[in-house]
What does this fold into?
Amino acid sequence: MALIESVAQRGAFIMQAELREFETKLAQFCNCKHAIGVANATDGLHLIARALEIGTGDEVIFCSHTMTATAAAIKFTGATPVPVDCKEDHLIDPQSIKSAITPKTKAILPTQLNGRTCAMDPILEIAEDNNLLIIEDSAQALGSKYNGKHAGTFGVGGVFSFYPAKTLGCLGDGGAVVTNSDELSEKIRLLQDHGRNEKGETVLWGINSRLDNIQAAILSYRLDNYETVIERRREIAKIYQSQLEDLEQLLLPPGPDSNQKHFDIFQNYEIEADKRDELKVYLKDNGIGTLIQWNGKPVHQIECYNFKTPLPHTDKVFERCLMLPMNISLTNDDVNYVCDKIRNFYSK
Ligand SMILES: *Cc1c(COP(=O)(O)O)cnc(C)c1O
It folds into this structure.
């Protein structure tokens, strides 16, 4: 409240010191050169694609197990989003990327889903071999790493979302673009503010997609304690792992310490479960809320988009996937209670 009052008293609502400070802190946190506050992560993806002049006639490959925002950001550039399959860890399948490449393909857009960064080596290799750009939808993955490198910083640009339900949430909508490219950073700064440069001159067509200063102030404050948020989420994942890993009816996400190369932040704890729908009802009857991501449909299954591509693994995942409670208000007792109820369900 003190932060909000301070910003409001100064009338410092648009592009003020708090925003610049947050951008600097965020870039430092991710160990990258530039962070640019934008209105939301969807806009961030769209701005990156526009800045790279991706448009009509181009194709961009994305993983169907993602929010429709990933595909929509591409669609509105005039380019065609091309959905591909996921693997056992629910992240984009490099084989599926390879099969989808055509002479029109311009970029690969992996989603760093559930707070886990893809094994990026094969994806980087495919991109290099085929002269493709990599743009990351890391909306769910602030602080997630692969080989010590932050999600969002592998390709030409990446995005984060500060939607309230994300691991670092603000008091409404918010997002950021991160990049190591001076050129991309400059272009996005113009595009996001009506094409205006620092002198206020309009030098190209732009849109309005800025991160409000009041949100930046909140985010800056929250980022200072963000490591403890990640730590707690990993602790909860560890409890789920230890209490549920012997159940053969479940497929758990990789545990927090299962692979040295991956540092996951557990935006979500997404499992696969036999008798998923019955389990969901049973847990609800016991006071436990669970969610099926994307309202139960990966992007390629959304009827009005008419993709018509069957994606065998993703289709199978969506008959079985379920997100267990994962947030920092949970106590260890809460998590143990969830695990007990799941065990009860399968012992019946
Ligand atoms: C939340 C989310 C988005 C959209 O973020 P906004 O800030 O709401 O635009 C995009 N992709 C994924 C994977 C997300 O989880």
